[in-house]
Write a structure and sequence with these properties.
Length: about 550
């Protein structure tokens, strides 16, 4: 039995955990950071992310002529979140606090830590169903130079500095299995020491136990992440009444160690778990041709031009368009019982509009290579996208529409694609391009997006017929549901303190990041405006770290 004492224990060495730990270290507290994985996984899921951050009325937006405001962002957030439950009391307050942070000191704080952003602002969750429907009214997705590793860098650097001075200690391969409580307060953690394992970042690691431990502290902060790698838990919480049955097959957007174990352990110890049925899974998942973890899925970050087809080849009804509203399109797909869907496009569109989520899929931005980044404006398809076109099991590339549909059917023989249906959809769409207006609402979204300079230059293709050979070849992409994030979590007040079911504070226990629904137990509500959720980890980690530092003086 290993026994160690610290001022504060942080369970989870992802982004939220590193932020909390460095806030504590900066306040002079002795911090112990535990993680069930090895040091090679320091930074957790943020390492794999594209590095997008939600900012409101930023200098980057203003330089591009994007008019944003806190009022507009608040309206977008609340419309998208659709809070409607009594337990949304704290999530609502967290949402408002986060919006003020994103419109206020967030950028200056991160800029002061050395973070920089790509000058073009992306448009995640662009909506399209109306002013009072879900979605961002304007682009707000600020891509960090260095992607996810660039977001992690200043916090990892500070954590290692504190470790060198003895203010912070890491204990990797320590899996927390329970909380220690005394006199009604949380006073430490207990768990298992796992054997050393050389598995690379993201790969499944050994669960062989070599010992146990108990660590005591004045406070414990849980930052152990979500449940997306645990499909059994995803299915247990799946909201069948809202989304229909969970798909029989889903790809994993996160490694297996994102298992929700600590969240369940805290709940068993008395912490209130709310909104567990609110989830964020993507509809545009690809099977990775070069996987790092089991069932590794990659998400397409699509522009708005591709035709979205059901398994038979018929177009999904508007407003279900690429990049529109992820949860609403997921609900349409799963309630319809579709095992998969399709994007149909051509080379001209994939070159401009397809990006792949993840730091490893964007080596130019991750490596801060300006010369390589500038090639995105060239004639070639981005190398990672081209690799999926060449090797991806979900891609079909052909010169003619009949050959394309035959290839689609060969890929999904149990769900043959109807050539006549696809041809009618493609020809109908192409005919709408003869005039500058037309009645196709998806094309109206495309034209509206191109009113923004960065959308026109590097993100949204000029509308053109798909069947024009000059834009070919034709491409079909089979899409799978991809598990990713939890929107619900442990209920916390505005200090990050975990609450019991009756609303009473659990003394000594805090939570931040995805395990707390990024704040309050679900500050996104049912849907999210953010693409990567890094902002929620940054904000809630900072709040919990500062509150625990104040409480342990």
């Amino acid at each position: 039995m290993t026994t160690v004492q610290a001022d504060v224990i942080v369970v989870g060495a992802g982004l939220a955990g590193l932020v909390a730990a460095t806030e504590l270290g900066g306040a002079g507290r002795r911090v112990l950071v535990l993680d069930q994985e090895g040091e090679q996984n320091l930074g957790g899921q943020a390492f794999w992310s594209l590095g997008g951050l939600f900012l409101i009325d930023s200098p980057e937006q203003r330089r591009l002529g994007i008019r944003d405001s806190l009022d507009l962002a608040r309206r977008d957030w609340l419309t998208t979140a659709a809070f409607d439950r009594p337990e949304d009391h704290w999530p609502r307050q967290w949402a408002d606090a986060y919006l003020q942070f994103a419109a206020g000191e967030k950028r200056a704080w991160l800029h002061g830590l050395g973070m920089r952003w790509f000058p073009a602002v992306g448009w995640a969750e662009r909506g399209g169903a109306g002013a009072d429907a879900p979605g961002n009214s304007v682009p707000r997705f600020h891509l960090t130079w260095g992607t996810g590793p660039g977001v992690l860098e200043p916090f990892e650097r500070r954590a290692r500095e504190y470790a060198r001075t003895g203010r912070l200690s890491f204990a990797f391969r320590h899996r927390v299995t329970g909380l220690i409580q005394s006199g009604g307060a949380v006073t430490g953690v207990r768990g298992e020491v796992l054997e050393p394992c050389g598995a690379a970042r993201g790969e499944r690691s050994s669960r062989v136990v070599t010992g146990d431990f108990e660590f005591s502290a004045q406070a414990v902060i849980l930052t152990s992440g979500g449940i997306g790698g645990n499909h059994d838990l995803v299915r247990r919480h799946w909201p069948t009444e809202r989304l229909g049955a969970a798909p029989a097959f889903m790809v994993s957007g996160v490694p297996a160690h994102v298992d929700g174990f600590m969240q369940q352990a805290a709940h068993a110890a008395g912490a209130n778990l709310i909104n567990a049925d609110r989830m964020w899974h993507y509809t545009e998942g690809l099977r990775n041709w070069n996987p790092i973890w089991e069932n590794h899925g990659i998400r397409i970050l699509p522009g708005p031009s591709s035709l979205w087809l059901d398994p038979s080849g018929r177009r999904l009804p508007y407003p279900h368009i690429p990049g529109g509203s992820s949860l609403d399109t997921l609900a349409h797909i799963t309630r319809s019982g579709y095992p998969h869907t399709w994007f149909l496009l051509n080379r001209a569109v994939i070159k401009r509009e397809f990006a792949l989520s993840g730091s490893e899929q964007n080596p130019d931005l991750t490596g801060r290579d300006l010369r390589l980044t500038l090639r995105r404006a060239g004639k070639a398809v981005q190398a990672p996208v081209q690799a999926f076109m060449d090797h991806g099991p979900d891609f079909v590339v052909r010169s003619t529409l009949p050959d394309l549909v035959a290839g689609m059917t060969a890929l999904t023989p149990d769900h043959p694609v109807d050539l006549a249906a696809v041809q009618a959809e493609v020809e109908g769409r192409d005919l709408q391009l003869r005039n500058p207006a037309g009645k196709d609402p998806q094309l109206a979204i495309v034209r509206g997006a191109r009113a923004f300079l960065q959308e026109r230059l590097i993100r949204v293709a000029k509308p053109a017929p798909f069947l024009d050979p000059a834009g070919g070849p034709l491409i079909a992409v089979k899409l799978n549901v991809l598990t990713r994030k939890s929107l619900g979590g442990l209920e916390t007040d505005l200090h990050g303190r975990v609450l019991r079911a009756g609303g009473e504070v659990m003394p000594g226990l805090y939570a931040a990041g995805e395990v707390a629904g990024f704040g309050g137990g679900g500050y996104h509500g049912y849907r999210a405006l953010e693409g990567t959720f890094l902002g929620g980890c940054l904000f809630s980690g900072r709040v919990a770290g500062r509150a625990a530092a104040e409480a342990t003086r």
